[in-house]
Amino acid sequence: MGLYTALRLQRKLKPELQRGDVEIVVVSPDPYMTYQPFLPEATAGNISPRHVVVPLRRVLTECRLLVGEAQSIDHAKRVATVATLATQETGRTEQITYDELVLAPGSVSRTLPIPGLADHGIGFKTVEEAIGLRNHVIEQMDIASSTRDPAIRDAALTFVFVGGGYAGVEALGELEDMARFAARYYHNVKRDDMKWILVEATNRILPEVGEEMGKYAVTELRRRNIDVRMETRLESCADRIAVLSDGSRFPNRTVVWTAGVKPHPILAATDLPLNEHGRLKCTPQLTVDGATHAWAAGDAAAVPDLTAKEPGKETAPNAQHAVRQAKLLGDNIAHALRGEELETYAHKYVGSVASLGLHKGVAHIYGRKLKGYPAWFMHRAYHLSRVPTFNRKARVLAEWTLAGLFKREIVSLGSLEHPRAEFELAAGGKPSRDPKGSS
């Protein structure tokens, strides 16, 4: 959400920036912002990966961008220690002094000490992971097509997704859709040969869309022969065998982990107050409670929900709140610098939308429930309106239009993940790529 805040500040502080009275420094581990709701579509090949990301240098023209990661923040001294791309070469970190601090680092994947997960699990938080997963799935179909060994074929065509939230359900829905389409071009791989398994520890999936739409989503996935296992946990994936808490065992080569997120580690490396969940304690004005000149928004911020009936409730850490908080945060920083009164964040949650694959979805918006094509269309329309910059909106819309006129691509470019492997082999070295195609 740092991009949204910086864009707002660029606009609100334009006179001060032109006079040189203000400098906005953006610290980011990547020179781009990933619009995560589009990751499932990028995985399925509906959107080009480069259109899922927004280049920071191009849109934040009035800001100074520093590509690196904050290692610690001493707010009492107003100093942030940042490891840049050059730190590995020089061994030196950057010490950045500031007057106002904005923390919007988002969240990271929450993993559990499950045997084999660190070795074989695949995450779904970045565009690199999304495209790597697409290449991996198509590669498994190629492996199955090239052998008659039933054990190898079965393992290659078994795909296990852990987590029934947005990321897990949408990634599974889009990838299954893509793989089912791709299977028609394989002479010895049929769509019924593939096993798609969704593992969820609670008794429902997609809780944000409501119980009724969550049940519909389960019915829709099962209608497509997707094995949805509720109140079930992954206990091990060692030796490439997924062992579930209900006693089931699935030899496989693909375990996708989307079972929740946790606060970014940088929050624990500050001297700012955190709540019991590790998020920053914030006020309705998006200032950090008890700390002057410190602000936060998005997943990192525990912001009181002023629209809730229950006292003490906080806004949910989702994109709907984060985007709106970022805009208000930019406004309030400008107000603070000019000695003006701060605005209060109060937004009633309007509902949620989720895609289950091409032309399939569920939605619960303003009390109205949609499913199938109308929900899928609502999902696309909403996220198209939220992706930053007109440039990205136009490119995504153009790609959707072309995708409606032509068949989707089913090419795997797995070699992109190991670009030097071919040259290393030609030069007599050992190729870095695993010849078995494991991830």
TrEMBL record:
The keyword Transferase does not apply. It holds the Pfam family Pyr_redox_2. Residues 17-326 form the FAD/NAD(P)-binding domain. Coiled coil: none annotated. It comes from the Bacteria. Belongs to the NADH dehydrogenase family. This is NADH dehydrogenase (Complex I).
